[in-house]
């Protein structure tokens, strides 16, 4: 079924170290187009590190070393000639804590298009409307586009960040616990939004919340101590996990 | 076993604490005295400031009873020995120095700050920042001689007709002196910008430079502008370098290759020369001092206002 979809990411024998501490061990994983792929696991299991490796944001930590390959659309992102800016233009990211720029909502959305050379006002206006609609925020903010994004609620700020990411029409959206700082109602809105977005984008979402993974994802990967323990269809993983450790985790025996 | 360890002179710890408390009857007295002493220290600096202001203003009033205020602020001739007091000549000299200094200090300071805050690794930063700050510790007399004996001869080779004492050389060196201040304050402001904002920009495919210029600098702008204002006020008040290298020729002119005189330079000239106490010239340094004080006060207030007004909340 899902196997007929083409792969977005093809991770092969990925190892990662922070200085002398190994954080990821021999990860092999295929991420499919238009899937919502959830990554679950206890704190410190490497799940955040893993998604940040997919757009090489992990490299902002100076002591990081990696081995292995990550192919994005068939090309190894660790290749010397691979421009990291190109990768991040195609692979967008939404962070744990909403991090809009301290600018107006409008300026937040057009930041990406502008740095990538889109300058004319009419196109930018269209991008703002389309992105905010895509992030299910347009109706709430259309009358105050030029107000500071920090005047919005946490949930709205997070959707501004999602809209900011949509504005450059990425291929994949990585989400690093996007709802962990939000209240339940905002969380619900973001989850509904993810269901909408998967029609056009491939989504990889890290979550602390197993119910959330079960609700929104097609495939789930369970990480433990830097290893990928189990990666399969969400329904299978939560109903009949094949690994004892997965079963212990999802039944709440630890973590 | 344990309780016997804690005993000394046959007393337990709690008994000894009790005993010490009784013998230390002075503790309460000291506790009451300390805040009063501290308050006195704080008051002292306020009193000194008031004293300085009082001297400045009262002598300034005496001066203006002898010289017309209108002449003082509108005339462009400054020659106290011939009774012409037009402070515009000194102000133009001060502005010339300040503008030259800022042309040097702002680009160099901001560039150093950008490098230190956004590009340098921790190791490089820890090595470079103290070196930069050493520049701030060099006595200004040394800078003055550096201007006179190194910068001026070098400029003479490039600019024909440069006078030996000139505003350009002094201004450049004042600028060099201020670079560490601009760099350090700007770096502080940029360092205070949360990393999540940089990550937000970089995750959109922005390069480091795009992130710096379009996200970090705007977010740190209030601190950066405030550092400029403080630097300007430092340049306006700089004395030694201009007294040594800029000359002593008050002139209403904006030609940096000529010898000029600044407000501070004039005050030095008069206070070190043999001017009799009570003469108009003697009082004139207070009037110039007050003008100088108003200039730097305005810059400092401006710095405070800007840092409040343009704060991007994050």
UniProtKB/TrEMBL annotation, chain A:
InterPro entries per UniProt: AAA+_ATPase, ABC_transporter-like_ATP-bd, ABC_transporter-like_CS, P-loop_NTPase, PstB-like
UniProt-listed PROSITE patterns: ABC_TRANSPORTER_1 (PS00211), ABC_TRANSPORTER_2 (PS50893)
Keyword ATP-binding: yes
Membrane protein topology class: Peripheral membrane protein
NCBIfam families linked: 3a0107s01c2
PANTHER family listed in its UniProt record: ABC TRANSPORTER I FAMILY MEMBER 17
Stated role: Part of the ABC transporter complex PstSACB involved in phosphate import. Responsible for energy coupling to the transport system.
Protein name: Phosphate ABC transporter ATP-binding protein
Organism field: Pontibacillus chungwhensis BH030062
From TrEMBL, chain B:
Alphabetically ordered keywords of this record: Cell membrane, Membrane, Phosphate transport, Transmembrane, Transmembrane helix, Transport
Sample GO molecular function, one term: phosphate transmembrane transporter activity
Record localization: Cell membrane; Membrane
Domain ABC transmembrane type-1: 91-303
Cellular component, GO annotation: plasma membrane
TM ranges: 37-57, 85-110, 131-151, 163-183, 215-236, 281-303
InterPro entries reported in the protein's UniProt record: MetI-like, MetI-like_sf, Phosphate_PstC
Transport in keyword set: yes
Membrane-topology descriptor: Multi-pass membrane protein
Top-rank taxon: Bacteria
Purpose of the protein: Part of the binding-protein-dependent transport system for phosphate; probably responsible for the translocation of the substrate across the membrane.
PANTHER family from the UniProt entry: PHOSPHATE TRANSPORT SYSTEM PERMEASE, PHOSPHATE TRANSPORT SYSTEM PERMEASE PROTEIN
Name of the protein in question: Phosphate transport system permease protein
Organism: Pontibacillus chungwhensis BH030062
Biological classification of the source: Bacteria, Bacillati, Bacillota, Bacilli, Bacillales
């Amino acid at each position: 079924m899902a196997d007929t979809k083409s792969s977005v990411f093809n991770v092969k024998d990925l190892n990662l170290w922070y200085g002398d501490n190994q954080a990821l061990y021999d990860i092999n994983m295929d991420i499919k187009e238009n899937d919502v792929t959830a990554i679950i696991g206890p704190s410190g299991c490497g799940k955040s590190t893993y998604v940040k490796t997919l757009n090489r944001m992990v490299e902002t930590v100076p002591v990081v070393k990696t081995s292995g390959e990550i192919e994005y659309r068939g090309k190894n992102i660790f290749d010397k000639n691979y421009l990291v800016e190109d990768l991040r233009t195609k692979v967008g990211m939404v962070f744990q804590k909403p991090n809009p720029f301290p600018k107006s909502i409008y300026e937040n959305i057009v930041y990406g298009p502008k740095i990538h050379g889109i300058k004319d006002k009419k196109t930018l206006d269209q991008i703002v409307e389309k992105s905010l609609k895509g992030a299910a925020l347009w109706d709430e903010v259309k009358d105050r586009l030029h107000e500071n994004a920090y005047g919005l609620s946490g949930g709205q700020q997070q959707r501004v960040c999602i809209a900011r990411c949509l504005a450059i029409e990425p291929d994949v959206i990585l989400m690093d616990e996007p709802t962990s700082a939000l209240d339940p109602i905002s969380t619900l809105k973001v989850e509904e939004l993810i269901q909408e977005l998967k029609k056009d984008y491939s989504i990889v979402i890290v979550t602390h919340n197993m119910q959330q993974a079960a609700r929104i994802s097609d495939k789930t990967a369970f990480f433990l101590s830097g290893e990928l323990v189990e990666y399969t269809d969400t329904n299978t993983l939560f109903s009949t996990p094949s690994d004892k450790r997965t079963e212990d985790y999802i039944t709440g025996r630890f973590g | 076993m344990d309780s016997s360890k804690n005993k000394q002179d046959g007393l337990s710890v709690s008994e000894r604490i009790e005993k010490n408390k009784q013998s230390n009857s002075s503790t309460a007295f000291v506790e009451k005295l300390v805040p009063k002493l501290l308050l006195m220290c704080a008051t002292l600096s306020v009193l000194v400031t008031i004293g300085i202001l009082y001297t400045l203003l009262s002598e300034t009033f005496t001066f203006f009873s002898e010289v017309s205020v209108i002449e003082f602020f509108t005339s462009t001739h400054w020659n106290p020995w011939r009774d012409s007091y037009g402070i515009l000549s000194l102000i133009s000299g001060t502005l010339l120095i300040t503008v030259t200094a800022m042309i040097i200090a702002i680009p160099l300071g901001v560039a150093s700050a950008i490098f230190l805050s956004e590009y340098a690794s921790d190791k490089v930063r820890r090595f470079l920042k103290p070196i930069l700050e050493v520049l701030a510790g060099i006595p200004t007399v040394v800078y003055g001689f550096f201007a006179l004996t190194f910068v001026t001869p070098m400029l003479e080779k490039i600019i024909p007709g440069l006078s030996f004492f000139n505003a350009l050389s002094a201004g450049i060196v004042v600028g060099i002196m201020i670079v560490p201040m601009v760099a350090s304050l700007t770096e502080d402001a940029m360092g205070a910008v949360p990393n999540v904002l940089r990550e937000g920009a970089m995750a959109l495919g922005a390069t480091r430079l795009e992130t710096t210029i379009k996200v970090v600098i705007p977010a740190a702008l209030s601190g950066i502008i405030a550092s400029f204002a403080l630097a300007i006020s430092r340049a306006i008040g700089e004395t030694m370098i201009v007294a040594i290298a800029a000359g002593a020729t008050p002139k209403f002119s904006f030609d940096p290759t000529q010898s000029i005189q600044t407000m501070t330079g004039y005050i030095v000239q008069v206070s070190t020369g043999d001017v009799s106490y009570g003469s108009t010239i003697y009082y004139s340094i207070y009037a110039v001092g007050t003008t100088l004080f108003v200039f730097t006060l305005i810059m400092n207030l401006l710095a405070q206002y800007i840092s409040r007004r343009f704060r991007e909340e994050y």
